[in-house]
From TrEMBL:
Name the UniProt record assigns to this protein: MarR family transcriptional regulator
InterPro entries linked: HTH_MarR-typ, MarR/SlyA-like, WH-like_DNA-bd_sf, WH_DNA-bd_sf
Residue ranges of domain HTH marR-type in the record: 30-163
Pfam families listed in its UniProt record: MarR_2
């Protein structure tokens, strides 16, 4: 990697130069990709946090609401946990707060009264219906400047990385 700064440099170029200086014998090329994925994710999630702030709902709570909004039926807390990748305790905490806010309701499962199902209230669905399109639009703006072919190629490449991590490649 060229050690000189260029006008096209981004934050990750700077970080990689610093790592190369500190550890010249280590190939830091994965930072080019993974560092950018991490930074893009972090920045995008920060934007979502700011956008959700007026609603009083956290990003994690919005993730719970989104899982419920995507489902065609009420979900068990364990199902929400599986799709959000939160711990069971975190899912319960988020569901409790959302229920207090009137955005999620609990109902007993007909076949087993011990099982609690979660579903959005009308107010919860209205919040998702207001915020989700805004989130998609922010994401669309982040991808501006890429052609349709580039978006397809980027999607395919990122999917390969996603498959690797989902497969649990060793540390």
């Amino acid at each position: 990697m060229d050690q000189a700064n260029s006008p096209e440099d981004d934050f990750i170029d700077k970080v990689r130069r610093e790592w190369n200086r500190a550890y010249p014998d280590i190939d830091t090329s994965p930072v080019e990709v993974m560092g950018r994925i991490t930074r893009i994710s972090s920045q995008s999630l920060h934007q979502l946090d700011r956008a959700l702030a007026p609603s009083g709902v956290s990003r994690a709570e919005f993730d719970v609401m989104s899982a419920l909004a995507r489902s065609d039926r009420p979900l068990r807390a364990s199902e929400v946990t599986a799709v959000t990748m939160f711990s069971g305790a975190a899912t319960t905490k988020h569901a409790d707060r959302l229920a207090k806010l009137g955005l999620v309701e609990r109902q007993r499962f007909e076949r087993d009264g011990r099982v609690v199902l979660l579903q959005l209230t009308e107010a919860g669905r209205a919040l998702v219906e207001a915020e989700f399109p805004r989130r998609v639009e922010r994401d669309r703006r982040l991808l501006s400047g890429l052609s349709e072919d580039e978006k397809v190629q980027l999607t395919a490449l990122l999917k390969r990385i996603s498959v690797n991590i989902d497969a649990g490649l060793p540390d």
